[in-house]
Amino acid sequence: MKIKKGDTVKVISGKDAGKQGRVLVVDRSRQRLVIEGVNMIKRHTRPNPQKNVQGGVVEREASIHASNVMVVSPDSGQQSRIGIRVLDDGRKVRVAKVDGAILDR
Question: pTM of the entire structure?
Answer without folding.
Answer: 0.84
